[in-house]
């Protein structure tokens, strides 16, 4: 195991416990519901990790992320669950972008940091725009049994989610250069959620 993957695993575990803690306090201590369907979908999703991914998503990470939205427990099919997962990811990107914007306001004009933050805001906006397209795809997707007029291959959905990789990495590189720890942690959480969305979308 390389130093990088040990580092990332440590962060992933930290994020996982924060996520669970945040969720149990948000629902006033009541335990968020987990359905067998969520667990099964997450089990399938965890088998779709790319072999070279240093931070593969686990079934547990998947379930705890889906638990962030109480609609997950109501989901009866993969389309609804993926729609919810995209919503969760969009929320995380918007929140991360809000903090980039905040830091930008406190940054001197004309500096390299200012430019990197400005690019990052555009990158995050672009991620949301792409995710909106993927979301529309899910709504229009009628499943493999839809027949000749279906118009959408099952591989198109993960390919759509995969398109957010580029803006995500661009922003990550910028933040890495300025060693903005809080923004980097948020960016990492966004990255894990992107992977999760890719894996879930790949199970359709
Ligand atoms: C999980 O995968 C199995 C085997 O491919 C499949 O039969 C099942 O329907 C899948 N479950 C979900 C929730 O996607
Ligand atoms: C989910 O939680 C919100 C408040 O956080 C509540 O208004 C809503 O009714 C809940 N939905 C379900 C399906 O439990
Ligand atoms: C930076 O430049 C923009 C546009 O020229 C200006 O609106 C803003 O007030 C400036 N910010 C600072 C901190 O100087």
From TrEMBL:
Residues 1-21 form the signal peptide. One of its GO terms (cellular component) is plant-type cell wall. One of its GO terms (biological process) is plant-type cell wall modification. It comes from the Eukaryota. Keywords: Disulfide bond, Signal. InterPro entries: Invertase/methylesterase_inhib, Pectinesterase_inhib_dom. GO terms for molecular function: enzyme inhibitor activity. Residues 40-133 form the Pectinesterase inhibitor domain. Belongs to the PMEI family. This is Pectinesterase inhibitor domain-containing protein. It comes from Triticum aestivum.
């Amino acid at each position: 195991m390389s130093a990088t993957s040990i580092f990332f695993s440590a962060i992933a575990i930290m994020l996982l416990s924060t996520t669970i803690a945040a969720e149990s306090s948000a629902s006033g201590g009541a335990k968020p519901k987990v359905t067998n369907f969520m667990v099964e979908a997450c089990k399938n999703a965890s088998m779709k990790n790319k072999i070279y991914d240093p931070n593969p998503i686990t079934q547990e990470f998947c379930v705890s992320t889906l638990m962030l939205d109480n609609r997950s427990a109501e989901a009866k099919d993969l389309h609804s669950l993926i729609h919810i997962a995209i919503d969760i990811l969009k929320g995380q990107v918007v929140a991360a972008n809000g903090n980039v914007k905040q830091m930008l306001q406190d940054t001197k004009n004309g500096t390299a940091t200012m430019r990197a933050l400005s690019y990052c805001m555009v990158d995050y906006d672009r991620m949301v725009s792409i995710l909106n397209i993927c979301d529309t795809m899910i709504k229009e997707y009628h499943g493999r049994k839809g027949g000749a007029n279906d118009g959408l291959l099952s591989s198109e959905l993960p390919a759509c989610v995969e398109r957010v990789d580029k803006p995500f990495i661009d922003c990550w590189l910028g933040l890495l250069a300025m060693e903005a720890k809080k923004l980097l942690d948020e960016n990492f959480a966004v990255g894990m959620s992107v992977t999760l969305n890719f894996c879930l979308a790949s199970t359709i």
